Amino acid sequence: MTSISQLTEEEKNFTRFFLLNFKVSPDIARRYFDVKFPPAHLALTINNNMNAIMKLNKSRIINAAQLEILRGVPGTIWPSYLPPMTAGVGSTATSSKDFDLTMMICLLRNIGGLSKPSNGWDRLPHPNDTLPGAALATLKWYRNQLAHTTVTSFDNNEFQDKLTMVETALQILNNGQRPNEVTEILNYDLDGDQAKLLAKDDLEQLKKVYLDRGKEKEQIESDFSHYRKGNLPIHIAEENATLVETWMKDDEYFHETKGSELVYDQMEDCSCILVTSNLGFGKTATIRHVAIQYKLKGFEIISVESPEDIIKYKTNEKQVFLIDDVLGKYDLDLTLLDNWERINEKLISSIETGHGSTKLLCTLRLNISLHQRFKNATTILNKVVINLEQETTSLSKEEKQKILMKHLMRSNLETEIETEEVDLMCKTNYAFPLLCKLVVNNEKDSEKNNIL
Prior knowledge:
Layout: H1 9-36, H2 42-48, H3 50-58, H4 64-71, H5 101-111, H6 132-148, H7 156-173, H8 180-186, H9 193-228, H10 234-251, H11 258-267, E1 272-277, H12 283-295, E2 300-303, H13 307-313, E3 319-323, H14 334-342, H15 344-352, E4 358-365, H16 366-369, H17 372-375, E5 385-387, H18 397-410, H19 419-425, H20 432-451
Parallel strand pairs: 1-4, 1-5, 2-3, 3-4
Helix pairs in contact: 1-5, 1-6, 1-7, 1-8, 5-6, 6-7, 10-12, 11-12, 13-15, 18-20
């Protein structure tokens, strides 16, 4: 084995390139990151983009280890459904100094508005692409190449070509200036005592890289083994279990109506139902209530966001999938509808060949369901549409009274409202369930103010 003082020129080339990528590149990238996300406002940035970050974690773009580092940033506020942090991890405050190159690029891409390189994020950018996104993609590319390489030497031509790419990327991120650290690396004495110190530093860097890779590999293998056995991915199952627990508590105060009974009865004979109405008529509460009834029959409830998620998370178990505002919240999202049409056959094949073991419940606002483009669409969503406001399912006076009393009882306010007030409220036809909720919340706020 060659000693540190006997390195060939080719081995020195490799050593310098390694140091450039694992010592200099992360520091320069971090400087750029801190300009885009100033450290003093990092917690606020994370909090303002919490939904996007949790989606990245859900899709494993941000892994569990990276999420714990983000959770350690002082001042961040995380969803209550997340499990407790690993012992010892949360005891020390974190900052961008703890972010690896991959996570910095991920955050810059997804919440920092970083432009996509011409060749995409996972290929070596074209030399003529001089935008910051391309520069960061270049650094990531060479870092990953080195992390998996089996070679330990570069000839001069290869070294110069790679060096030019990385140095150019670093200059782009460093306001067009060559970082001083690059010059220092290229001038390192790799034949004397300094070389021994560098070799030790190299070893520590490599240990960290391979330990991190090893942890990711173990997690992926464990998750894959669990999924291969016909289970939902662990993080999806945990997230849904937390959601369903909350829904079941809310459902204790749900009152059965003609609409909810119709949805339940129709689900016996079909695989997908779309529940529609205007705002405040209880669409979401209805599909959650029906899903909970199916849970009692052994079904697993999974809240998803897209038709691809249904195909992705379908297992051999009995499942009921839920999607709120399936084609947009306020107006018809034509891109979403096109997507449902594009994979409709695949989706039907996935759902309807399960012998009734897979169900799909969705909600959509009435104005969108009446859109001609939706009516003409060929999707599984068009098969069975139940309008909670139509004559056969609209709330009766008796149903309204019982719904209102359920809301009042939940907050121990049933004795605080007069019969005349109940009768007056029950004459309301628009958004009655939402009105009940608002009235109860208003009573509770008034009670608090009187106490204060």
